[in-house]
Amino acid sequence: MASVIRTLSLVGAAALFAACNNAGQDGTASSATPAGASADRTAFERSDDHAIGRVDAPVTIVEYASVTCPACALWHRNVYPDLKARYIDTGKVRYVFREFLTGQPDLAEAGFKIALCADEEDYFTNIKLQFDRLQQIMQMAQNGDARTAYINIAKASGLSEEEFATCMANEAHRETIQSKMQQGFDEGVGGTPAFFINGNAAKIGTVEQLDEVLGELLGDEAPAPSDNTTE
Question: N or C of the chain: less Cβ packing under 10 Å?
Answer without folding.
Answer: C
